[in-house]
Design brief:
about 210 residues; alpha+beta; Cyclic Phosphodiesterase, Chain: A; globular
Length: about 210
Amino acid sequence: MSPTHFISIPVASPGITENLRKFQDLCGEKIHPHKVQYPSKLHLTIGVLKLFSDEEVQQACNCLSEFSAKIPPILCEQPLHGTLKNLRVMRGDNQFVKVMYSEFILSDDSDRLQNLADKCLEFFVERGFMEYQYNTTAVKLHCTLINTRWNNAGPRTINASEILSDEFELQIFGNCVLDRIDLNEMRADKSFVAENDKRYLNVSCVSFK
């Protein structure tokens, strides 16, 4: 059975929103607009869960709440300020791409964000809510910008060679401060109907502040 929920860190700022729309304009006809992520749904995924009852959802919420006590020492009680930048291909040939993503680089070049993600994953794995993927205990932190599987319109792959070239105009998407971990359902929150304000259905969250 497919995952029903996921743990993630949202990535959001007005500058990032503006630049993601600029990115879509620069890509033009190379990428169908419905295959580009909504700015309001940008995030760094930590892991996915399979929760099939209200009781299991509540247990996962409790687990996230319990983990929150471990966050301040992991972050050294400092904010996670950084930049969403670079364009990467998840796997395969640049001419037949399904997923493109960007990376979040901390301003202090520390590994605090990676440590936070790895510790959170470990915490949920130990309690039976998640499993390690691809034979590694490290989270591959990435912010998906394009996924050709999000919509049936257009081709199933794209040629990303030009977008990945050094001459491509947009390489830095903007700065922001990461401020929380979310537990979301995979499905969208239908209370947000505006085209520029699509969101996942949030179940629980813990703040870094």
